[in-house]
């Protein structure tokens, strides 16, 4: 049923304005963003299909927000305008979290750090090693994706990480990489790499606060697990 044919108090926009965004289910919020459906499929049905479990959909709001513009191409009815709107929401989320971490001490916002890294790394099909560079108050200065590899391994050069830390005049870092396989359990290689980087950065008085491993919809803090 088209949105205009729903009773006024059941239409997502009117419901949001009258009762607040918390009154809307995920599909209704997404329908507001999409605005229109396609021939033979209303916008609510299109939204529900996008949120459906894989392979039909992306597995809920988190899965949708962790996808890419290319990933959205496979959905019939999502033209360039709709894909751009969804990707724009994702980018706004990244920037909002980045601003929060630039204004707050990272150690006081561990969940925000995980969400920030999820939005940056979780959807990537290959392994990416990233570093969050922090100032003396442990606020975010910059985040750089420094190395890319295959699905199973990547080559990390400690010297390059040290040089970038000096470039940003960082006092501390949070290391991060993704596991496209979905498992976020650290391997022996992950633990060894962490200690190598910790030693290299320690020579220039830069602390390693954490190493976060990211998978689709999940993340693990090595600091929280006592592995630093």
TrEMBL record:
<keyword id="KW-0862">Zinc</keyword>
<dbReference type="Pfam" id="PF04002">
    <property type="entry name" value="RadC"/>
</dbReference>
<dbReference type="InterPro" id="IPR001405">
    <property type="entry name" value="UPF0758"/>
</dbReference>
<keyword id="KW-0645">Protease</keyword>
<dbReference type="InterPro" id="IPR037518">
    <property type="entry name" value="MPN"/>
</dbReference>
<dbReference type="GO" id="GO:0046872">
    <property type="term" value="F:metal ion binding"/>
</dbReference>
<dbReference type="InterPro" id="IPR010994">
    <property type="entry name" value="RuvA_2-like"/>
</dbReference>
<dbReference type="InterPro" id="IPR046778">
    <property type="entry name" value="UPF0758_N"/>
</dbReference>
<keyword id="KW-0479">Metal-binding</keyword>
<dbReference type="GO" id="GO:0008237">
    <property type="term" value="F:metallopeptidase activity"/>
</dbReference>
<dbReference type="GO" id="GO:0006508">
    <property type="term" value="P:proteolysis"/>
</dbReference>
<dbReference type="InterPro" id="IPR025657">
    <property type="entry name" value="RadC_JAB"/>
</dbReference>
<keyword id="KW-0378">Hydrolase</keyword>
<dbReference type="Pfam" id="PF20582">
    <property type="entry name" value="UPF0758_N"/>
</dbReference>
<protein>
    <recommendedName>
        <fullName>MPN domain-containing protein</fullName>
    </recommendedName>
</protein>
<dbReference type="InterPro" id="IPR020891">
    <property type="entry name" value="UPF0758_CS"/>
</dbReference>
<keyword id="KW-0482">Metalloprotease</keyword>
<comment type="similarity">
    <text>Belongs to the UPF0758 family.</text>
</comment>
<feature type="domain" description="MPN">
    <location>
        <begin position="106"/>
        <end position="228"/>
    </location>
</feature>
């Amino acid at each position: 049923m088209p949105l205009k044919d729903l009773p006024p108090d059941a239409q997502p926009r009117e419901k949001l304005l009258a009762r607040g965004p918390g009154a809307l289910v995920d599909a209704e919020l997404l329908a507001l963003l999409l605005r229109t459906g396609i021939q033979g499929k209303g916008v609510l049905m299109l939204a529900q299909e996008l949120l459906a479990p894989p392979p039909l959909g992306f597995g809920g709001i988190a899965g949708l927000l962790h996808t890419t513009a290319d990933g959205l191409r496979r959905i019939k009815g999502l033209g360039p305008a709709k894909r751009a709107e969804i990707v724009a929401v994702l980018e706004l989320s990244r920037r909002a979290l980045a601003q929060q971490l630039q204004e707050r001490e990272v150690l006081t916002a561990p969940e925000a750090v995980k969400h920030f890294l999820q939005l940056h790394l979780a959807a990537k099909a290959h392994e990416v090693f990233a570093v969050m560079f922090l100032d003396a108050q442990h606020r975010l200065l910059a985040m750089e994706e420094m190395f890319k590899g295959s699905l199973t391994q990547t080559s990390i050069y400690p010297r390059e990480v040290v040089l970038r830390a000096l470039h940003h005049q960082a006092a501390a870092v949070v290391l991060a990489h993704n596991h496209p396989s979905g498992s976020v359990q650290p391997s022996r290689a992950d633990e060894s790499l962490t200690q190598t980087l910790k030693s290299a950065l320690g020579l220039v008085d830069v602390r390693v606060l954490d190493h976060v491993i990211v998978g689709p919809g999940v993340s693990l803090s090595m600091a929280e697990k006592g592995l630093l």
